[in-house]
Amino acid sequence: MLSPPIATPFPQIAAVFSTDDARWEAMQRRDASADGVFYCAVRTTGVYCRPSCAGRPRRENVSFYATAADAELAGFRPCKRCRPAAIAGSRGARASSQISAVAARVGALDWTRIAAELDAHGCALTGALLTPAECRALAASYRSDARFRSRVIMARHGFGRGEYKYFADPLPPTVAALREAFYPPLAAIANRWNAALGIERRFPDDLGAFLAECHAAGQVKPTPLLLQYGEGDYNCLHQDLYGELVFPLQVTVLLAEPGIDFTGGEFVLTEQRPRMQSRAEVVALKRGEAVIFPVHHRPVRGTRGPYRVNMRHGVSRLHSGRRRTLGIIFHDAK
């Protein structure tokens, strides 16, 4: 039976289901991402199942086991409907392959083009990055409070309308993989920008090293988040600053299908130039596509050399439906 974190070849996934409450929630929503991470045994029937099994046992009759072998040693037999033994031992390999694929997609992006568009326009699109299935899985996880450390209702703070949730540690594997894969090429761009602006700060090549700096400065709370908007919701122009240490670029991935799941709700980026009118950029994203943009400022080349412009971003009013997005911020929060 399980109570402590699950021992598995892929601990990032297991840690998401590290408590019995989290495992029970996974059963309730028939979460296929938990299949093979743990097993559910039902005392009244004497069988054990995958978390995604269609059965609906009562909570008091359910026990959890790390492996199919553990469940069978406890006297349970495999469910004939969901055949849990068939996936025993394969979960870690499948998950590792999926995360490797996500990281490979980021690595295969045209980083020369992305850097040039960030320099010229202050934002760059990746094209298709996540599959529809990956988008659905991330969007569906919004319903599971166990995966998040906090929930923010925007209207309560004057941020706009809508809501968002910050992921708890450990981050979901797909989110962690995106954060780790995006960081190195973006760190190269960030360091080039700082050099252009005469800023001494240089960012390490590795995300882990940068997060260690954040944690030493008291910024220990993870900042990747899911945002949810309904009809009439919007996000005011803002900057995502969470402490003294700020990584100057961030990423947003659209998880919903424009024109089908929602209308309106465009990503908006504004640039405040010294002694000039502000400039706005409206970015039309497709589902599974990411936009890369500055957190708070970027260099712009002028007649006398590069100068700094301040940036803010937000979301225009949603006309209908529901819009969910993934936000990847690289510095942690206090």
Question: Brief overview, please?
Answer:
This protein has helices spanning 11-16, 20-28, 68-73, 91-107, 111-121, 132-140, 154-157, 173-196, 207-216, and strands at residues 39-42, 47-49, 62-65, 77-78, 124-128, 148-153, 160-161, 163-167, 225-229, 234-238, 249-254, 262-264, 267-272, 279-283, 289-294, 297-302, 305-315, 318-321, 323-328. The chain is α+β, with helices and mostly antiparallel strands and 334 residues long. Helix 4 runs parallel beside helix 8.
Descriptive keywords:
334 residues; alpha+beta; DNA Methylphosphotriester Repair Domain; Jelly Rolls; 2 domains; 7-stranded antiparallel beta sheet; 6-stranded antiparallel beta sheet; 9 helices; disordered N terminus
What is the element layout, followed by pairings?
Layout: H1 11-16, H2 20-28, E1 39-42, E2 47-49, E3 62-65, H3 68-73, E4 77-78, H4 91-107, H5 111-121, E5 124-128, H6 132-140, E6 148-153, H7 154-157, E7 160-161, E8 163-167, H8 173-196, H9 207-216, E9 225-229, E10 234-238, E11 249-254, E12 262-264, E13 267-272, E14 279-283, E15 289-294, E16 297-302, E17 305-315, E18 318-321, E19 323-328
Parallel strand pairs: 2-4
Antiparallel strand pairs: 1-2, 1-3, 5-15, 6-8, 7-10, 8-9, 9-19, 10-17, 11-15, 11-19, 12-18, 13-14, 13-17, 16-17
Helix pairs in contact: 4-8
